[in-house]
């Protein structure tokens, strides 16, 4: 008997999603974000890079502003208006104190109760595909930065910059994890999730020769259907949930 996924907690109002690249959230969680913003919850996005190394046929200098625009349009499609970029170099993001500091600063600034990130494990679900260094570095730094954000003696200069400790993060939710524990019924957010992923049209057209809308719908419907097998038959978005407070 496959272990069933629990319902994601709902006792929160503000979320901050921190990922490595444009499209990370759209492949992993935008249907859930759409459902949450429908309920009046707030969600902000922070991206470590512009994803400028992600399109083989377009050089980084041209790709960076293009992917930024597509990400902002993509976020707007699911009700997210706050989108920030840190500008780390795509493909070579390094886990370390500086990355933790930047993430801790963002958490203190946005004061979320839920922090969302993408798979930090070595492999993707199924265990046959190796995860990328950027995803691993960013995801692990996010998990550590949640604790850093609440400790006034770590990065004390942030207090001097007007960012006092924030201990209000209650949950960290990891999308795309090979070890999901919870899920969100995302049926109501599917159409907006398709539109959101489709906003990354330039990137998608470099990935596949399929019709972009067909590609987006097939991917999202397939991933949500896989979740349904462990979520009472309800298509959804799965997360590995860590309780922090």
From TrEMBL:
Q: Which InterPro entries match?
A: GlcNAc_PI_deacetylase-related (IPR003737), LmbE-like_dom_sf (IPR024078)
The GO terms this record gives for MF are: hydrolase activity, acting on carbon-nitrogen (but not peptide) bonds, in linear amides
| Superkingdom of origin organism | Bacteria
Print the keywords alphabetically: Zinc
**A GO biological process held by the record:** glycoside metabolic process
**Pfam families cross-referenced by the UniProt entry:** PIG-L
Protein name (record)? PIG-L family deacetylase
Give the source species.
Streptomyces triculaminicus
């Amino acid at each position: 008997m496959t272990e069933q996924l629990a319902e994601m907690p709902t006792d929160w109002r503000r979320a901050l999603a921190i990922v490595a690249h444009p499209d990370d959230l759209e492949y992993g969680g935008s249907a859930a974000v759409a459902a949450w913003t429908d309920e009046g919850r707030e969600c902000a996005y922070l991206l470590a890079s512009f994803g400028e190394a992600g399109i083989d046929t377009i050089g980084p200098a041209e790709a960076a502003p293009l992917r930024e625009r597509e990400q902002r349009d993509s976020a707007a499609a699911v009700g997210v208006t706050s989108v920030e970029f840190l500008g780390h170099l795509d493909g070579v993001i390094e886990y370390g104190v500086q990355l933790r500091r930047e993430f801790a600063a963002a958490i203190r600034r946005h004061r979320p109760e839920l922090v969302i990130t993408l798979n930090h494990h070595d492999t993707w679900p199924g265990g046959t595909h190796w995860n990328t260094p950027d995803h691993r570095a960013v995801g692990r730094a996010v998990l550590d930065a949640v604790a850093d954000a609440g400790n006034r003696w770590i990065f004390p200069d942030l207090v001097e910059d007007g960012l006092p400790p924030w201990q209000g993060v209650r949950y960290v939710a990891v999308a795309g994890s090979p070890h999901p524990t919870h899920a969100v019924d995302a049926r109501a957010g599917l159409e907006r999730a398709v539109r959101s992923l489709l906003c990354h049209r330039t990137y998608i057209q470099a990935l596949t020769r399929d019709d972009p809308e067909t590609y987006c719908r097939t991917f999202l419907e397939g991933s949500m259907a896989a979740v349904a097998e462990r979520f009472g038959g309800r298509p959804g978005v799965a997360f590995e949930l860590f309780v922090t407070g």
